[in-house]
Design a protein that fits this description.
There is one protein chain. This protein has twelve helices and 15 strands. It has 385 residues and is of the alpha/beta class. Helix 4 (71-85) runs parallel beside helix 5 and helix 8 (239-277) packs across helix 12 (359-379). 39% of the residues lie in helices and 16% in strands. The longest helix has 39 residues, at 239-277. The radius of gyration is 22 Å and the shape is globular. It has two domains: 4-12 and 256-379, Alpha-Beta Complex (Aspartate Aminotransferase, domain 1); 16-254, Type I PLP-dependent aspartate aminotransferase-like (Major domain) (Aspartate Aminotransferase, domain 2, 3-Layer(aba) Sandwich), CATH 3.40.640.10. A seven-stranded mixed beta sheet has the order 2-8-7-6-5-3-4, with helices on both faces. A four-stranded antiparallel beta sheet has the order 9-10-15-12. The protein has a two-stranded parallel ribbon with strand order 1-11. The structure holds pyridoxal-5'-phosphate.
Amino acid sequence: MDTVYFDNNATTKVAEEVLEEMKPLFCQLYGNPSSMHTFGGQMGRKIRQARQQAAHLLGCEPAEIIFTSGGTESDNTSIKGTLAAAPNKRKVITTRVEHPAVLAACRDLENHGYTVVELAVDKEGRLDLAELEELLDDDTALVTIMYANNETGVIFPIDKIAELVTGKGIVFHTDAVQVIGKIPLNLSKSNIDLLSLSAHKLHGPKGVGILYVRKGTRLTPFMVGGHQEAGKRAGTENVPGIVGLGKACELAAQNLEEENSKVKYLRDKLEDALLKKCPGSRVNGDRENRLPNTSNISFEYVEGEAILLMLDKFGICASSGSACTSGSLEPSHVLRAMGVPFTSAHGSIRFSLSRYNTEAEVDYTIEKMPPIINRLRELSPFVAG
Ligand code: PLP
């Protein structure tokens, strides 16, 4: 079997249709959208079309969309841009399980005199909304809470949180990078002020994303320079990327149903079989409120990296909940925040599927995985003989 790609939360294959839309924009239609000539002007129309395609998927106005270089920029702009627009407020609330694009940006604020509160999660990865409500005060400039977790797929009740936070006059940002195209969104019916997304998680190209800014939200631009993106994000537009992102949004809107049914069916089949065939395994995170494509499973007493290496020999790509940093194996901050025991956190594997996966790939992985776990357990110093 060729490569079996179960690492779609890391990045996705660019859809053929997306690539086809992008191709002419490199060597044929390469003008600068800001130029006065007709050739450049054509690019402006392409960008307008992409903005409409994205707005349709998100259920918002095209004017509420700013194209950025990806999720990291959208997150940083939301955080820093909101604080710059509210210089008298010094408190930010986030969670312990955010992506580093949010966590690092927030932690850096502490060096600049801000108070940053990181909300805890329970063992299923869920938040306590009563705790959040108590923390909201006049000094709070921003609450930034991810829509769904990239490691576990756990979905937070974002519409409820947005209502709570904005009801107190506080700006609410959500990192929805893992959500777009997997579950439906309708921003016109939500109180979210700012939302980040990234094309490469959506079968679009890398290096391009969206920052949704609700009309009327105060945000100081982070990137200054030219007048692109209505003065909200300077820099010559990544036209091929933006066009690709627009097409990816159009396809995502068409494929949402499939993502929710076929992808979920494959994920559940894989997960149920691995839990059954591998003793000492468990799912990390709330299984009810979860992205349809993500499964994070801990295999007790084995190293995630060792599992990945052995899966890799069979051409199976997944990812581990633990990151190897400077020779010491640190379990994932998300699993640690959930209180997953050390012996489980180290042996966690994330499978993240897409509409391009097949049942044959799932069956192949179900066949290969249990002998890998058994073999590693035999070698494990943690398992009593
Ligand atoms: N936020 C989340 C939840 C992510 O999963 C990622 C990417 O892994 C990012 C932000 C960063 O997005 P980008 O790679 O487009 O900068």
